[in-house]
Amino acid sequence: MIDIIRKNYCIFQVFVYAIGFCCAICEAATQVSSQKYRSLRSNEVNWRSGPGYENPIEWIYKRFGLPVLVIREFSNWAYIRDSYGTCGWVNKNFLSNKKTVVVTSEESHMNSRPDGTGRTVAILKKGVICRIYKITNGRCYVSTQDKKYSGWIEKSDCWGGADFSGDDYQ
């Protein structure tokens, strides 16, 4: 009799775990469909191997405003990817809604006009982070973080908040 109870209990546990696993897959699939770009709010952000302070720090980012793609969220944690494809978990308190881009080409010529016919305002080097305000015809209106320069750059020269379907940022 005790063997039958143990067997039924084991079957019950497997069933409960299977339901939990299916729910986790459904939740992850839903979260993946709502990916969004955010930026780092601090000069120092810890990337962890999992959601929670008990998980080890795998990387420390020291780039205020760096754009990241939020792939999924869990409680107060976000699983994010950077422009190099590196993924990790960060606390959502270290993410900002400010839309930024990072220059990914070796050089990007910032122009005073959206059609590219104006004067060159600046030449941005790879790794420069800019705030993005508008996208028109494959060009982004941006300003450098120090707000010293603003103008239009090619969308293909950058990664981050420029990959969206609207025309204006708030």
UniProtKB/TrEMBL annotation:
It holds the Pfam family SH3_4. This is SH3b domain-containing protein. It comes from Candidatus Hydrogenosomobacter endosymbioticus.
